[in-house]
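Each record in this resource describes a single protein on a pair of labelled lines. An example record follows, reproduced without changes.
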Amino acid sequence: MIHKIEPHKYYPEFRNQEPKPSDYLLLFDGEKVYLPSHTENSDVTDTSAGAGISEHSQVYLPTFEEVHGLLGIRQPMERFFLDCEYLFSIDDRAFFRKTTEDAGALMLPEEDLYASGMFRNFEPEYLAFAGITATQINRFRLDRKFCGRCGHPTVPSTTERACICPECGQIEYPKISPAVIIAIVDTERDKILLTRYAGGSYRHWALVAGFVEVGETFKGAARREIMEEVGLKVSDLVYYKSQPWSFSDSAMIGFFAKLEGDPSITLQESELGEAVWFSREDVPDLPSTISVGQEMITLFKNGGDPFCKR
């Protein structure tokens, strides 16, 4: 999964820390991040590059020193360090955020600007996790420029990761929405239910999933989402794992569930385009296992789920 970066260690705690030239810089233009590329002198197709990158190019997370040189910034490094936000550290390397607005309306090459989806296929994986986590914090800062209560401009807190309204005192924290994702297993027929979304850019097979409503438990949300999306009843909800999922500002809570009763599907067409029961040998291969849902599907395929009778 994308957050499993061992042997590297992630340090999310808030710090008032000054950058160094060797620290990583996530430079944002709105919601897009600056990822420079370099040409690979190799005939091997580069699999770390995302959509739109040629087979001999590799994009990477740059350091302050690299950004300063690549963009030909004339101001001294000490001034370029100003108006940067410390994000987190991985091992002994710090990661910072800066915007083109903070950098004096700095113009970035359009071909080097990428949306957050780039980090689904980014390598190495620990920097993919760093990149998508940084984009979640950047999105929080963009969405909380003004107070949701009184409309006054907010200011960053100096003691925690938050935005404070100096007018009414409202404090806003990063958006983290809990969501459940469920692998429904028909134990009598030894099959798993896979779905495809009705819309959106992700077209691979997935699991039933949805956000937790106010006042719900995680298991209650799982049962409700299953009934809403596919009209099925389940029992024996077994917790699997949780995962931060910065692509949608979520925290995913994974369950395996046993089908109870009739396997006939009633599809919620506003949410899903397909829902199909697959036997273990017919479960399709997935493009990756960066998400807890993909890992659960692969686990069932390989006979590692809690309901496997092998």
Observations:
- The chain is about 15% helix and 30% strand.
- Confidence is low (pLDDT under 50) at residues 40-57.
